[in-house]
Sugar phosphate isomerase/epimerase
Amino acid sequence: MGLQLFTIRDAMEKDPIGSLKAVKGLGYEDLEIYGYNEKEGSYYGYKAKELKNILDDIGLTVSSGHYGFSEYFEKSDDALKKYVDQCIEGAHALNKSYITWPWLHPEYRTIENFKILADKLNRIGEQVTNADLGFAYHNHGFEFEEQNGQLGYDIIVNQTDSNLVKLQLDLYWAKHSSKSTPAELIAKEPERFVMWHIKDMDKITRDYSELGNGSIDYVSMLSTLDHTGLKFYYLEQGGNFAKDSMQSITDSALYFKKNLKKYL
């Protein structure tokens, strides 16, 4: 059972080790992390190798990480290449399987920029693949917003090399913003969808929600989706907590273990 640590970013800022121990105690086994400091080679204030030792002692693995690639969208190719090398070094230190592009700043979300993005993804994917790691793109909702009959997501999928750029499907955002269902999206290239984000949708506001409290029928979804390419999945909730982030990952873990884990 995986967790995207961004869910508890407030707790991680205050007490990283205590928070990680609590995560393990709730039954989470694997993590997707964020917040790499490439200048210091650190995560959450710990050097990457030091964090690896901490995680080993607690009994947690890290399979993917979200990195700040969008900050380099307008920087030189050399600057981006250097940053990717730094991310690779950090990923290797934690024995990760994937490096993931998680976000595109709003000012870049035009059709022409999605084409530029696709080229960048291919180049990063080649660099990461040559380092014996996988590379993936994580969607939000903006990729599914139509612009003159075109979707950014289609450009990303169709103009990138499927051997170099895998896909991390955020099931919440696909339900929230795409006219295609998650099943339809996956069916086009099942082996390419190597990771999923699993989070629920508030029944009224359509904001994030704890698993089991929202409007997404995950029992039906997870029992029928094509799992061919799936390597890792992560429970996540970006905000809108009923009480606080730690209680939310507690509630979501309990619901997931009771109702959904058997489908994965």
The radius of gyration is 18 Å. The longest strand covers residues 61-66.
